[in-house]
């Protein structure tokens, strides 16, 4: 019996086979022949893989400029900050200033505090009576975001943070997020004015969020820094409380965007 080549299968069957192959392996198979290259580049394949992985639903009607890039961005999508909710004490955070009685970790709700909107968040970082700042520097290449993707597609980068005061003490909260080049040059920045919370506030948790879109090419790092101090200069930990911070990179939804020509890295 003569052996048949897989390429003799109808294209729709071969396409269905590729739907079940891990994405990184597909990219390695792309140079095998022109048929495989063309099928692996077909938008239908990557839309099917998005559906199979649960990134979209059957009734999805949002425009997608490049389904392959959309798939990889969805696959990579996660919080790039480590230990965002203080479950590992101060691990993964660089302490930039440690004034007063220094940074501390406490359990929600804490003294004169309130419950967090998400019951899964159990702890927070708290500051003291002099400036307390901490930061993380995220290396995008190390997290899987190759340079052509960041320079050509420039996916949305959304940063969020949550802060609260004690009801019995005022405080000042600050946040600064910068997109940096390979040489640590600031290409875009989010640095709103400090937030002052008056004494005897309701101590509710407040979310701050910002999305970087259409930033310049060359972004290789994201610097996230936050903190603050109390306004009464009381001994102890009466400054702003922070938790559930995040940096998330997501596909950009643009109706008129042209498909990208960048290819995901296979190494």
TrEMBL record:
PROSITE patterns: FBA (PS51114), FBOX (PS50181). CDD domains: F-box_FBXO6-like. Keywords: Ubl conjugation pathway. Residues 70-251 form the FBA domain. The keyword Ribonucleoprotein does not apply. InterPro entries: F-box-assoc_dom, F-box-like_dom_sf, F-box_dom, F-box_only, Galactose-bd-like_sf. The keyword Secreted does not apply. One of its GO terms (biological process) is glycoprotein catabolic process. It holds the Pfam family FBA. GO terms for cellular component: endoplasmic reticulum quality control compartment; SCF ubiquitin ligase complex. Pathway: Protein modification; protein ubiquitination. GO terms for molecular function: carbohydrate binding; ubiquitin protein ligase activity. Residues 3-49 form the F-box domain. This is F-box protein 6. The gene is FBXO6.
């Amino acid at each position: 019996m003569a052996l048949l080549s897989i390429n003799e299968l109808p294209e729709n069957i071969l396409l269905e086979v590729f739907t079940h192959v891990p994405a990184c392996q597909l990219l390695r198979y792309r140079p095998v022949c022109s048929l495989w290259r063309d099928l692996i580049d077909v938008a239908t394949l990557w839309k099917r893989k998005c559906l199979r992985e649960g990134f979209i639903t059957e009734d999805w009607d949002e425009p997608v400029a490049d389904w392959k890039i959309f798939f990889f961005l969805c696959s990579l999508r996660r919080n790039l900050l480590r230990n965002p909710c203080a479950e590992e004490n101060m691990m993964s955070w660089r302490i930039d200033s440690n004034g007063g009685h220094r940074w501390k970790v406490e359990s929600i709700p804490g003294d004169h505090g309130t419950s967090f909107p998400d019951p899964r968040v159990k702890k927070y970082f708290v500051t003291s009576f002099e400036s307390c700042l901490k930061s993380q520097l995220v290396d995008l290449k190390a997290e899987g975001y190759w340079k052509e993707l960041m320079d050509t597609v420039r996916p949305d980068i959304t940063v969020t943070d949550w802060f609260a005061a004690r009801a019995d003490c005022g405080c000042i909260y600050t946040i600064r997020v910068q997109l940096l080049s390979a040489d640590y040059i600031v290409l875009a920045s989010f640095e709103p004015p400090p937030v002052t919370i008056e004494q005897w506030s309701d101590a509710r948790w407040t979310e701050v969020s910002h999305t970087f879109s259409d930033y310049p090419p060359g972004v290789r790092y994201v610097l996230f820094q936050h903190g603050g101090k109390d306004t009464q200069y009381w001994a102890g930990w009466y400054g702003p409380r922070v938790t559930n911070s995040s940096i998330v990179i997501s596909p950009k939804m643009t109706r008129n965007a042209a498909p990208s020509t960048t290819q995901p890295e296979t190494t």
